[in-house]
Design goal:
CATH class of one domain: Alpha Beta
InterPro entries: aa-tRNA-synt_IIb, aa-tRNA-synth_II, aa-tRNA-synth_II/BPL/LPL, Anticodon-bd, Anticodon-bd_dom_sf, Gly-tRNA_synthase/POLG2, tRNA-synt_gly
Protein name: glycine--tRNA ligase
GO cellular component, one term: mitochondrion
Number of helices: 21
CATH topology of one domain: Rossmann fold
Oligomer: single chain
Helix content: 25-40%
Strand content: 15-25%
Keywords: Aminoacyl-tRNA synthetase, ATP-binding, Ligase, Nucleotide-binding
EC number: 6.1.1.14
Length: about 600
Amino acid sequence: MLRKITVIKYSAFMSNTLLLNTMNRRQQELALQPKDDIVDRTKMEDTLKRRFFYDQAFAIYGGVSGLYDFGPVGCALKNNILQVWRQHFIQEEQILEIDCTMLTPEPVLKTSGHVDKFADYMVKDVKNGECFRADHLLKAHLQKLMSDKKCTSEKKSEMEGVITQMDNYTQQELADLFVQYNVKSPSTGNDLTPPISFNLMFQTSIGPGGNMQGYLRPETAQGIFLNFKRLLEFNQGKLPFAAAQIGNSFRNEISPRSGLIRVREFTMAEIEHFVDPNEKVHSKFSSVADLEIMLYSSKAQTSGQSAQIMKLGDAVEQVNQNLLCTFSFLPLVLPSLTASHKVVNVVQFEPNKGAIGKAYKKDAKFAMEYLAICDECYITGQEKLLNENGEFTIETEGKTFKLTKDMVNVKRFQKTLHVEEVVPNVIEPSFGIGRIMYSIFEHTFRIREGDEQRTYFSFPATVAPYKCSVLPLSQNQEFMPFVRELSEALTRNGVSHKVDDSSGSIGRRYARTDEIGVAFGITIDFDTVNKTPHTATLRDRDSMRQIRAEVSELPEIVRDLANGAITWTEVESKYPIFEGQETSKKETVEE
C-alpha cells in the first residue's frame, strides 16, 4: 500500500504540559513553592557569582545584558543535566538525535511564520530611547501600584485581573492599558511611545555578496522538520517516532533582566514526537499513569489559580480534551511504500440531501459539511440517539439543525486502501537548559542551621558538578600516595572529582566543596596511613555524617551513590559511623 504522509510543522507549545521544567515568571515560580520555602536570592546569587557558576559575558568591556559565560562548576552542572536528559529521553525511548546548523536561511523562517510573527511588544522612552518590554513593564508598574497602602481592594482586584491576562492582550489593548494606568519610564519618569512589535530574531547575511538573508535560529525545531524525510526513511517509514536536538538558540530579547531565566543566547533540548492521529498510545504510559506531579495549567495561570497535584493519567485526559495548538504551515508530502494494501472499516453519515435541503434551504450545506467530517465515535453516539429518539441535534456555523431518521442514516462498510494520507500530530516538549539550571539552584540552595555564613547547594548526586572531593587532612606528604591512588581509581570508575590539598583546615575545605555542591567527600587521615587495611572516611554533604571504609572500596561506593544504585542510608547501615581518628602524629583541629 502506498502511504502518503503529510507533515505540518507544529510551531507552538501545548497549552497544558505534562512536565513543568521551569516557570516563565518569578511569581509563578513562587506559587509552586511551599509558602515557608522562600529562597534568599541575594545570598544565592552572590554564591553563584563568587564561585563562578556563571557570570556576565564580556564583563571587562562592561558586559552585555542577556549573555552569560559558564564557569567550571556551571559547565559541569550543565553537562550533567544534558547527560541525564539524554539518558532519560534519547536512550530510554530510542529517540533519533540530530545536530543541525544554527544559521538558517530566511525562506525557512518565513515559511514557518517566524519572520512575520516571532515578536514581542516594546515601548521606548520618548527622550533617551531606552527600550522596555511592554508586558513586563506594565506588570511591574501594576505591582508597584498594588503595593501602595492607599490602593483599594477593588483596584487591587482589577489590576490582578489585568496581570493574569497579560499574555493575551493585543497591541491596541496594551496601548490602552498604558494610558489607563499612566505608565512612565521607570528610569527617568519620561513618557513612553505606544507599544510596537519587535521581531526577536538576530538577522545576518550569508556569503560575501550579502544577497542571501539569514537568521540565527530562534529554536531548534526547524532542523528536525526539514530533515523529516530522512528521519522517516531511517525509521523504515514507520510512525510513531521521535527526533531530538540539543543546541544553542538565539532571541534578541528587548530587556533581559532576569539572569538565566531570560537571555539572548541559550541552550535548548527539544523533541518532536510524530504520532499517527488515530493511534495516540504510548506502550509505557500505564507504568506512570498513577504518578502524581504538580501541574500549572494554562487555565489556572490565566485565572490566577494555584498549581495543583494531579495524576498523569487524569492530566492526559484533560489535555486530550483541551489541547490547543497552532500550526505554521510547513507541509512536506512524503510517500513511503509498504508491503500490501490495507482494509479498513468505515462508519459515516449518509445524508438525504433532498430532505435536509427542503427543511433548511440555503443553510442545508452547513449541516451536510458538518456530517461529512464526523468521526466514528461521534457518529456512533448520534446513531444511538437517532434510534432511541428518532432524531438528534447538531450545531455548526452558529446554527442549530434537528435531523430525523428520514434526513440521515448511518452507513457501515469495508474499504480497501491503496493510498492512505496521514497527517501526523506532533508533540513538542521543549526544555530551556538555563532555566532548568536556575530552578535547580533555587530548589537546592541551603544555609547551614546555626551558621548563616555557610551556604551550600544540595544538588542531586546524579547532576552534581563533582560527585566527590578527595581531601588529605593536611599537607603531610604521607597522605599523597593515597590521594593519587583514590584519584586514579575514581577516574577509572567514571566519577568526576576534585582534589583539594590546599593548606586550609579540613573544616574550611569541607565548606568550600559544599558551597559548589560536591555530593561526597573522602578524607585521608592518620588512621589511613597507620592502620591496615588502609581506610578513609566518606562524608555526605547534606547530613555531614561520615562512615569509614577501606580505601579500595570507596571509589565504587561513590560511583554507586552517584548513579543512584544505592542510598546514603544503605551505606550507613553497612559501614561503621566515623566518630574520630584513633591515631595521630600531631594534634589536628577541625574548624
